[in-house]
Amino acid sequence: MAWLDKAWLDTALEALTAFFLVAGALITFISSFGMVHLRDFYLRMHGPAKATTLGVGLILVACTLYFVLIERTFHIQLLLVTIFLLITAPISAHLLAKVALHQKLPSDTSTTGAPSELREEDVAQEPDTPHPEDPGSGQRP
Amino acid sequence: MLIKRCLPRPILSLILMLVWIMLSDVITYGSVIMGALLGIAIPLMTQRFWDAQPVVKKPLLLLRYTLRVMVDILLANLEVAWLIARPWRRPRPAFVEYPLTLKRDFSITLLASTISLTPGTISANLRLDGRSLLIHVLDTDDEQAVIDEIYNRYERPLMEIYE
């Protein structure tokens, strides 16, 4: 098989690795672009959720390909990185969202649905009577 | 009796030991012993935080569920990337209240994680009563469709697997 000589194969494998690397970088770039041009906190949260799943995933595939096909070694840590990311990413996103709701960050006007967490009457007011542990808070100018 | 007290969660201990050996990348006496020590110490220290874990009733279904989530992550990612990359079309975000039918904490956690991992939806808040989940959707004009899709694709399989 003359067409399958070593130099040609190496180039093909490197091209495959490069493809995954560039695809991962592109996905990560698009999600960071989303951080800039999406309009409220809740929308911007979708960006990192994506970068950590597909973006990092593709880069890790490229890593695995490189080490297995070109360096001829296998590092199982790459698999562990994926697993840890998949376990931790949704939890941090959930906590961020919870904090945003707790702080009642405004959502974009085009958002449909009004969760009770964001309704106006729940907004915490400055207390009339000072808090026992912070006597100054009632008389602030 | 002594084994039960030293290893309250045998499977967790085994996983911890394996993860440690994988992290150290070589199988030596040192890494195995260190992994075994961690596998004994960590479950003992964290035992008070663990709820009872439900039994996986249908392992094959769990495997299929995992594969489906992987494929969904891939496809939905591309969809959201395309959505962000078009600045001329504004997304139509929505807060959706999702009525939960799952009962156990563990399966609810799995469902919420799945929702957050599949891009375009993020589980924002689990209501205190544990009956509904607040989801933020990046782009939708039909809330009921989102609820139906999550129910059919994720919640029903999870219920079959765990409850």
UniProtKB/TrEMBL annotation, chain A:
Keywords: Membrane, Transmembrane, Transmembrane helix. Pfam families: PhaG_MnhG_YufB. The chain crosses the membrane at residues 15-39, 51-70, 76-97. It comes from the Bacteria. Residues 117-134 have a biased composition (Basic and acidic residues). InterPro entries: PhaG_MnhG_YufB. Signal peptide: none annotated. The keyword Transmembrane helix applies. PANTHER family: ANTIPORTER SUBUNIT MNHG2-RELATED (PTHR34703:SF1). This is Multisubunit potassium/proton antiporter PhaG subunit. It comes from Kushneria indalinina DSM 14324.
TrEMBL record, chain B:
It is found in: Cell membrane. It is a multi-pass membrane protein. Keywords: Cell membrane, Membrane, Transmembrane, Transmembrane helix. InterPro entries: Cation_antiport_E (IPR002758). GO terms for molecular function: monoatomic cation transmembrane transporter activity. The chain crosses the membrane at residues 12-45. The keyword Cell cycle does not apply. Its main location: membrane. One of its GO terms (cellular component) is plasma membrane. The keyword Transmembrane helix applies. Belongs to the CPA3 antiporters (TC 2.A.63) subunit E family. PANTHER family: NA(+)/H(+) ANTIPORTER SUBUNIT E1, NA(+)_H(+) ANTIPORTER SUBUNIT E1. This is Multisubunit potassium/proton antiporter PhaE subunit.
